[in-house]
Amino acid sequence: MKDHLGRPLVAVTGIGIVSPLGWGREENWAAIIAGRSGISRIRRFPTDKLRTTIAGTVELPEEAAGAPSVSSPERVERMAAAAVAEAMVQAAIGQGGFPGPLMVGMPPVEYEWPQRFELARKANGNGTYRAATEVAAGRRDLYETFMFGGVGERLAARFGTRGAPIALTTACATGASAIQMAVEAIQRGEAEAAIALGADGSVQPEAVIRFSLLSALTARNDDPQAASRPFEKSRDGFVMSEGAAALVLESLEHATARGAAVLGIVSGCGERADSFHRTRSNPDGHAIIGAMRNAIADAGIAPSDIGYVNAHGTGTPENDKMETLGMRAVFGDAPPPISSNKSMLGHTLSAAGAIEAALSLLTIRDQVLPPTINHREPDPAITLDVVPNEARRVSGLRHVLSNSFGFGGQNVCLVVSAAP
Amino acid sequence: MTRQDVVITGIGLVSSLGEGPEAHWQVLSRPGATPVVDEAAFAPYAVHPLPAMSFDAQIPKKGDQRQMEPWQRLGTYAAGLAIDQAGARGLVSDMHLVVAAGGGERDVAVDEAVATALCATPAAEAGAILNERLATDLRPTLFLAQLSNLLAGNISIVHGVTGSSRTFMGEETAAADAVRIAAARLAEGRGGIALVGGAYASQRWDLVLLYGAGGAVWRGPFAPISARDGAGGFVGGALGAFLVLETAAHAAARGAVPLARIAGVATDATHARAGGASAGAARALWGGMKPAVGGRLGVLSGMTGVAEARAEEEAFLAGLGAAAVRRTGSLLGHGVEAAFPANVALGALALSRGGFYPAMDPADAGEGPVDRILVTGFGQWRGEALALLERAA
């Protein structure tokens, strides 16, 4: 019930997933091991004049029925609520209140263009902030939707979690940071259980343009399903995507005492920040190497115990090169297989770390490594087994390392392990 | 796990009143301090503006300054002040970082021009034009200057803080949780030193728009917090506030002088706070604190001026039996994510100087000196937070 440092072991007893591949854990997992892509042309808004016109998107039921698109915070909240509900049902916990805190990994949110246009119309065509401020007076709906604390507050109220929810962002490592926060809360005895959540719903015009202006996105628009090419020679950027994943975490002791089925253990968390550049890793890779090593050490195991790595694997030339460097530094000449869920899901940004940790647990459960799809031409510089194109059945897999590396130099790695 | 004592060894503070501990002590420790207010630029909303400052001392590379907007510059600057006061420049590579962040600046001119030009255009038609305008008009670097986690990113880049990096979002309570988590991680042995704080750039229309829509911003000429009638509201105050926290053993080993000891930090978020719920939550948090010392209690209240939260906090304070209460927002304004760390910084400053502050608001009662200081943070919308500071041993 305790780990090598005397801390309570932290079990996962519930998993919920929403992504462009579907609403629900098993639906997503089936699509992932079938190697299906969730990327498509953006239909949510006009894409004329955009360099990139593809993404992974999650439509809400009413949007699919023709209603106008919701804002990013509303999409985040809806997907998050679905993922948390699914995880709580699987864990069979929290009827009448959840015995611990909620950690919400999510993107920063702000007014979007539909809100700006609406306020300007109300101000008789005056688009200034001063005019918008006058006509926005009394709009509690805008205030509560776009405050950073709004999504977490509503989720915490809905699911009856304890204390103040913590919303957090570490860019592309956000989902992993949320899990780390939840694990730490249980380890320090703050609570017996916690919910960790990562969610993102940022496919809206300005966000697409901003990532595009950073030259981060692929513009392989002709064949959306083949656009995300992590570790492949012709990779030229990531594909934006959306989704959410939630984990119910509890001390192994608590889970065992109430007879819950244990899906796995979050056995190690490691982090390391980089001081090199706002969007690039230090060429020596020390921060991502440090995060990987810290996670493995925190789990009390050796690199050779890791049987598979769930890659950050965005499909940008830079990330995949640096991740390869990190893999070789940590694992030497015989690195374990590594594959990128983003080849199918795209980059779900704030959700990615949580979705990938969830899929890592299912990888151990079913002893199947998800593939890296769209692997047409190997890159000679990527000296890794990337599980190309087809899922792979394995046996005896106990420990998976899940990598998450963020803009701004925020790197978080998790080790998830089979139930003891 | 053995819990270790956590102390504050450095504070970085920038407000409309000035910069650094000495400047703030000089102004705030004497009676009759007056707030610095700009009532014109954002009328009918008043703000406490950023003082004239050069960022070069803490952000020496102009290239770095250009990659940021005022909010990130202010935070990065204040973080550097804290590191300097702690004498911790050599410890940054293993220093942990927790930042409480709001959203970054937008390009106001672009927003206003595009909103004016396209608001009446049918959506189907406006989409293509919007795409073209944004792709042309938005500076690529603005995204990074705007991203919430890039305040932390810039602190890593400019000051070399790389132990770990986390950014919390969620207005006032996010900052209190940042202090709470940073202290808890040190107490349980996850590292020896951490940097925590936030910044608020008050002179921004987008923030007046966001918070004003909820009626949280005080409308009209400046008035002290207790004198804001009706639904009340906050007056935004430019504020950068960072703290260097260390385990007492880590500080002692390197000969750093602690300014104060953190006896406890606790947060909650009642979902329907009026009618005593919020006050009750704070009472429960206070009841859970375990002071090491007794003695006279001073309060540095982060009261925003929003009437509902103010009523709840007043009810809590009335039952506290504090020797003296100070509503710091009446002089500093309200700095949202920076408010709680700023009040902790002011608390550490007072304890390290062996004094307390004279009244800051007409409702402030009692006199110092005090032996321990309670910092409160009732969020403008949600959240209750307390931190108890004691004199360092």
Molecular structure report:
The complex is a heterodimer of chains A (420) and B (393). Chain A is of the alpha/beta class. Chain A has a single domain (12-109, 148-417), classed as Thiolase/Chalcone synthase (Peroxisomal Thiolase, Chain A, domain 1), CATH 3.40.47.10. Chain A is built from 14 helices and 15 strands. Chain A has helices spanning 25-33, 61-64, 72-91, 113-122, 129-136, 140-146, 150-159, 174-187, 205-213, 252-257, 286-298, 317-331, 342-345, 352-366; strands spanning 10-19, 22-23, 40-41, 54-55, 102-105, 166-169, 193-200, 243-251, 264-273, 308-310, 338-339, 368-369, 392-393, 399-406, 410-417. In chain A, strands 1, 2, 5, 6, 7, 8, 9, 10, 11, 14 and 15 form an eleven-stranded mixed sheet that branches. Chain A has a two-stranded antiparallel sheet with strand order 3-4. With 393 residues, chain B is an alpha/beta fold. In chain B, strands 1, 2, 4, 5, 6, 8, 9, 10, 11, 12 and 13 form an eleven-stranded mixed sheet that branches. In chain B, strands 3-7 form a two-stranded parallel ribbon. The mean pLDDT of chain B is 96. The chains are: A alpha/beta (420), B alpha/beta (393). Chains A and B meet through helix 4, helix 5, helix 6, helix 7 and strand 6 of A and helix 4, helix 5, helix 6, helix 7 and strand 5 of B.
